[in-house]
């Protein structure tokens, strides 16, 4: 998948946890973007490749 001139290898992305994906790409892609905007965009890229977490998974994370 290509987003704003950056290629993401879908097979590799699917093999990563979301946090690991974001942490690995934060220092590398879109360096001129604000960190919070970059993190949001990476999250959207991850979710578009892997799929959004089920509602049960999201609520379980917030209960911790």
Structure description:
- This protein is mainly alpha-helical and about 60 residues long.
- The protein is about 60% helix and about 5% strand.
- It is built from 4 helices and 2 strands; from the N terminus they run E-E-H-H-H-H.
- The chain has helices at about 10-15, 20-25, 35-50, 55-60, and strands spanning about 1-5, 5.
- A hairpin with a 2-residue loop joins strand 1 and strand 2.
- The longest helix has 16 residues, at about 35-50.
- It is globular and about 30 Å long.
- The N and C termini lie far apart (about 35 Å).
- Helix coverage percent: 55-70%
Strand order of the largest sheet: 1-2
Q: Find the structural class using helix and strand composition.
A: mainly alpha
- Largest sheet, if any? 2 strands, antiparallel
Number of helices: 4
Distance between the termini: 33 Å
Instruction: Give Rg in angstroms.
Output: 12 Å
Q: Give the overall average pLDDT.
A: 87
Low-confidence stretches: none
**Which word captures the global form?**
globular
Order of helices and strands: EEHHHH
Strand percent estimate: 5-15%
Number of strands: 2
């Amino acid at each position: 998948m290509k987003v704003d001139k950056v290629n993401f290898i879908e097979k590799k992305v699917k093999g990563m946890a979301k946090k690991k994906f974001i942490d690995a790409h934060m220092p590398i892609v879109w360096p001129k973007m604000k960190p919070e905007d970059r993190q949001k965009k990476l999250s959207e890229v991850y979710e578009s490749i892997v799929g959004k977490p089920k509602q049960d998974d999201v609520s379980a994370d917030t209960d911790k």
